[in-house]
Amino acid sequence: MSEYNFAYLDEQTKRMIRRAILKGLAIPGYQVPFASREMPMPYGWGTGGVQVSAAALTPDDTLKVIDQGADDTTNAVSIRKFFERTAGVATTEETERASIIQTRHRIPEAALREDQILVYQVPIPEPLRFLEPRETETRKMHSLEEYGLMHVKLYEDISQHGQIATSYAYPVKVEGRYVMDPSPIPKFDNPKLEMAAIQLFGAGREQRIYAVPPYTKVVSLDFEDYPFEATKADHACDLCAAADSYLDEVIMDDAGGRMFVCSDTDYCRSRRAAGHVGRLGSEAPLSTGPEAA
Amino acid sequence: MTASMTPDTTDIYSGGFADPAVASAHGFRAAMDVMARPGTWRSLTGARAPAGLSEAAATLLLTLCDPETGVYLAQDVDSAALRGWLTFHTGAPLVPATEADFAVGGWDALMPLDQFRIGCSQYPDRSATLVVELPERRAPNATLTGPGIKDSARLYLPDSAALQRNAMLYPLGVDLFFTSGADVAALPRSTQITQGG
């Protein structure tokens, strides 16, 4: 603990990140450049989210980290341990008990509250990047509110596939002004982007921070005759029987056997603890409860 | 610094954060919370500046300012003691209003609003943040809507018309903190303002 400054980063770096977060909140959806630092983990492992979390944490916080909805994958475990060690904060796997949730590619199923903060790890913050590789051009397109290219992309989806085939990192327009990449969350999660909690987005390699304040209008781009649709696998969870949660498909054997399970492990666990049993589920063993006291 | 500006050294070295990392973390959370929820007040404590600056404004400056941010002190708060205090605790250079990242003072002393940087269309974040000292928390006289506000919020604004003009510049414009005693509220450029209501 004492070998590190609180939450690892030095104070001047945190101030720089904090100023970027404040400007990001004042201009929802606009990507604020920031001087991203090297972190003791590789790019692609959430260095942007980690820096934003480090700048936002106080010793009183309870931190939850999820990777594709799961608390127990390598990325989530290592980031949780990182902040346990460098910030000494409490951690939890329960969405309800967390004050800050760092996430890779999911929004928790449970509705977040006003006193919670959701920090996203973002790989490519620029929604126009795969359509226009030059930063000088995309910056100009944002400044002129020139988003025709994005609609052409969605239109080409329809002409080739008969529907908008973009299924994750689905572009949104924030408060009627900036088109924003919501990070690679499934489009199932897009309607949840209008929430009571503060949402902060950090892209470490690309050196951008952006934000969505609570109750900000976030609209998924679409067409009148091809309206946006939040989709998920057409099943119920095989462990907890939830019909309303985003599902992972798990291959069980070489004979085509498969099961569908909630990608949000805490949501699934709490439902099983409440007695819900899915097709392949059994009564939840009590030992799988959250590790944090 | 000229001889007449030599600060009273008994004041300027005290009043900093007792535990900088933790105090500034709490300070930032209050600042972020009010910027994300225009119209709400939060308590903001931890720093004491020489006479003339509220605890909330002093804490905000120590939380956000360093050698990379130019600070403008409006005439009503500008003093040799405050300059010395700010320099000792943050290292922030003191700059004219037109170059400021942060500007501190009472509303009238900070005016005109259009002297501050509002960013440019490709980088609207390169704009000033005003820390407006209010002598007291007065009854709200404006209704706010927009990002961060569930239905609507109410806040006292010193000049709704000038701030409406600022909001019309969106996505350009300045962002404001209002400080009074140990309390802080904020008004980002994204907020729509209705007078009275």
Give a structural overview:
The complex is a heterodimer of chains A (293) and B (197). Helices cover 24% and strands 17% of the residues of chain A. Chain A is built from six helices and twelve strands. Chain A has a seven-stranded mixed β-sheet with strand order 1-9-8-5-4-2-3. In chain A, strands 7-6-10 form a three-stranded antiparallel β-sheet, with no helix packed on it. In chain A, strands 11-12 form a two-stranded antiparallel ribbon. In chain A, strand 8 (198-203) and strand 9 (208-212) form a beta hairpin. In chain A, helix 1 packs across helix 2. The model of chain A is unreliable at 287-293 (pLDDT under 50). Chain B is α/β, with parallel strands linked by helices and 197 residues long. Chain B has one domain (11-195): 3-Layer(aba) Sandwich (Rossmann fold). Chain B is built from six helices and nine strands. In chain B, strands 1-8-7-4-3-2 form a six-stranded mixed β-sheet. In chain B, helix 5 (107-110) links the parallel strand 3 (102-106) and strand 4 (129-133). In chain B, helix 2 (20-36) crosses helix 3. The model of chain B has no long low-confidence stretch (mean pLDDT 94). The A-B interface holds A 5-7, 11-12, 14-16, 18-28, 30, 32-33, 55-59, 139-140, 142-144, 175, 177-178, 196, 198, 211-217 and B 20-22, 24-26, 28-29, 31-33, 35-37, 63-66, 68-69, 101, 121-125, 127, 129, 146-150, 170-171, 175, 188-190.
